[in-house]
């Protein structure tokens, strides 16, 4: 089974979890990154709450993959605009499986997972699981066993030997 982990991470938390899952699943990883750096000036808050943001080229063709793991932070109870853009541009998705792993300071996990679930199921993909990781846990380095548990929970045939 071939797995692609697609990760957006502005401050590094989600990237750490994504790396663990990549290692456990023997997956490829692609980084979702914006063309324009986020502007931290509060006057530009509106940029954050837009639906979409331009992203750099990354792997969006699932043709040679069986499972997509979307790794995303929670932004105001929603996926970040870069993640929305990534999902909208996916190719060869029909019948492919997907999972969502979300990081957040405290809340909004279910909202983000359900948002992504709805978008990808509408494209004909099959949801197989989700994981939730608090940024506090990640900061203490207390995430590796939970990330491993999440990866194994995906119950892919490739995991049977683990
Ligand atoms: C613009 C923005 C909005 C955020 N909104 C939420 C939120 O709604 N709920 C929450 O618990 N954390 C929220 N956070 C915190 C992040 O989800 C959390 O720190 C996450 O782990 C960051 O991931 P990253 O380091 O991979 O970018 C927000 C952070 C940013 C920058």
Automatic annotation (TrEMBL):
Named cofactor requirement(s): [4Fe-4S] cluster
Domain Flavodoxin-like: 3-155
One Pfam family in the UniProt entry: FMN_red
InterPro entries per UniProt: Flavodoxin/NO_synth (IPR008254), Flavoprotein-like_sf (IPR029039), FMN_Rdtase-like_dom (IPR005025)
Superkingdom in the source lineage: Archaea
UniProt GO MF annotations: FMN binding
Homology family: Belongs to the SsuE family. Isf subfamily.
Protein name: Flavodoxin-like domain-containing protein
Organism expressing this protein natively: Methanocella paludicola (strain DSM 17711 / JCM 13418 / NBRC 101707 / SANAE)
